Amino acid sequence: MTFTAACPPPCLCASDIVSCSGRNLSTVPPDLPGYVTRLDLSHNVLSALLLNWPDRCLDRLTTLVLSQNAITYLAPDAFAPTPHLRHLDLSSNGLSRLNASAFHGLGELEVLLLFGNRISQTMAGAFQGLSSLERLYLGGNRLAVFPLELYQRDGALPRLRFLDLSMNMVRQVPVQSLLSLATWLQGGIYLQGNPLVCDCALRAMLEYWERRQYRPLLDFREEYPCSLGQEEWLNCSASPQGGFHGTVEVSYQAEPGDWLMVPCPGVSLPLREGFMVFWVTPGDGSPALGITNGQSSRLTVLTNGTLEIRGALREDSGTYSCVAVRGRHRSSNETLEVTVSVGNPSGLGKSGEERSSGGEHFNTAFTTLASCVVSIVLVLLYLYLTPCHCHGGKAGGVGGCGGRAMLLCADPREAELADRRVTGGKRVAFLETGGEHPHKCSAKHPVMDAAATEGILKNGSRALEQVIEEHVA
């Protein structure tokens, strides 16, 4: 006989939900039912989560709420009995550090809430293995260093798109590394409420985020210590006596192997000492380049903020964004982006082989267009010059088909009135190879006489000549 596990005495149960919230529990109740999918242990006095905290494997559990407790310790592999967790809430506890294997085995976890603890350190690999994690809440802790390992190297979380680092102790952020992240990653980083040092690099990044309309900055703009006042921004902007690149081109064309100099739009010269310029290169995850650390194998940011591309390649084509403090000189219609195209898609001005390839493309297109014109003419002929057989009269007479002639009738009644038609009008005839066919005119559509036919052919020829002239030009 099979018995269904009863609801633990201090808890409330509703189908697959077990709530033990607010029961002043210091340990997890035993005999939790194996069918539970949501377990709420919040608002208790739990102090640790040991390896054997449930007395059975809860392999159907997807949501575990442990908030508002006094948990200061998570045992290694503490969540091994709950391998299918997708939502874990450890907020408002007393955690001060996260061990390397604290969340081991939670490959399906999507949301992890750790805000409101006292976390000041995360051991290397603390979040490793959370391959499905999308949202990580670390706000309201004591972190002093931006956890860049969440996006780089072995500890990277491939699906992380939301990171809350608000209300921590972070003073410096790796601006150039953050600008190198994909736009959908940058747009999910919350930094409000930190004692950030508002140097020129940070201000340039915040201005760039504001231009990009990233929600974390727009929603909590007043909680960033960096002021947008004119005097503060002036210390990070280019020399006010210099001339602005307001007319800098926003599109550049180059051939493979060329050297290309791309000025930063909206930046005045000469630059102040310490002025920061970053260039975000095309493609999500491509490295951002800066003046002090802005050299790759072929791309360099010069001291005046200009991007130098040496030996341009076709893969250098794309949109480049210049990140710099523009401050009070900003305008709503000012662009931050420059488009670079390497290679001439039309084939003009290239080598003989490339030009030949372009000529082949032209010949193919011309042939296709000419065929279309001819097809249109033939369709018109078919629609308006439907042949019909005249009503047979006397053999060889005027009213008959005249031997092998087959008239094109403008109206079916013409066959009946053929004997009375004026012979001065022109007629178009097709010669048949067979004998006489004494059928009546079967055309269903009115057809044109010879003059109209000549007009159609002339118009078709004129259209064909016009197509030829346009393509040759």
From TrEMBL:
Q: Which residue ranges does the record assign to the Ig-like domain?
A: 240-341
Transmembrane spans = 365-385
Instruction: Fetch the InterPro entries from UniProt.
Output: Ig-like_dom (IPR007110), Ig-like_dom_sf (IPR036179), Ig-like_fold (IPR013783), Ig_sub (IPR003599), Leu-rich_rpt (IPR001611), Leu-rich_rpt_typical-subtyp (IPR003591), LRFN (IPR050467), LRR_dom_sf (IPR032675)
- This protein's source sits in the domain of life called Eukaryota
Keyword entries, A-Z:
Disulfide bond, Leucine-rich repeat, Membrane, Repeat, Signal, Transmembrane, Transmembrane helix
Q: Among its keywords, does the record have Iron?
A: no
Q: What PROSITE patterns does the entry give?
A: IG_LIKE, LRR
> May I have one GO cellular component term?
membrane
Please give one Pfam family short name: LRRNT
Record's keyword annotation contains Glycoprotein: no
Supply the name of the protein: Amphoterin-induced protein 2-like
